[in-house]
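Attaching the record inline, Q. Sequence:
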Amino acid sequence: MTKTKICGITNHQDALAAANLGVDALGFIFYKASPRYIKPEAARNIIKSLPPFISTVGVFVDEEADTIREIMRDCNLHLVQLHGHETPAFCQKFSGRVIKAIRIKDKLSLIDIDKYPVVALLLDTYVSHKVGGTGEVFNWELALTAQKYARIILAGGLDPENIQQAIKTVRPYAVDVCSGVEEEPGIKDLKKLQELVEKVRLSDYSLEGDPC
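Structure, as predicted:
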């Protein structure tokens, strides 16, 4: 079954709505330049209110390792997602519970992805002035190539309108959605969120009978 991660959580209402819909993971962005930035103490309070069996992911961009460890510990986060220029050696500092984001521009973006010691690679769309939440889709055929090297979390411009085609094309381990279910940066549209979760499940059911 395709896992679902909702990223850019900034408030209790959105976090609990996503959890009640049965999503698998929530992402909290600790990159101050992001419009979806959340302070660690606010994230900690939200995480305390979550039901069990929801994975929590801290998203960082070119942050110091000690700062990441401190926030991960204080907020009781399960996974670290590195969304900057972090090297494979840097990823090794976090005991393997790492998701490395790769911004996809073309096939050259996939060079050396096999060197990352991570539990999954998150593939997002390359946009020169953004490090995530672009709302733009990349060539999903490149994700098929990346699947040879790691579990793939598909991101980049996913929304209720294209999520089923994305899953059918790539069959990723998980999908990561942020701007595609928002009213505005950091505030989720609960109707879109519900529609997305329903369509992910429908996609999985239809793929069970797909002979391909």
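Strands lie at 3-6, 25-29, 55-60, 79-82, 98-104, 120-125, 152-154, 174-177, 182-184, 187-188. The chain has a mean pLDDT of 93.

More tomorrow.
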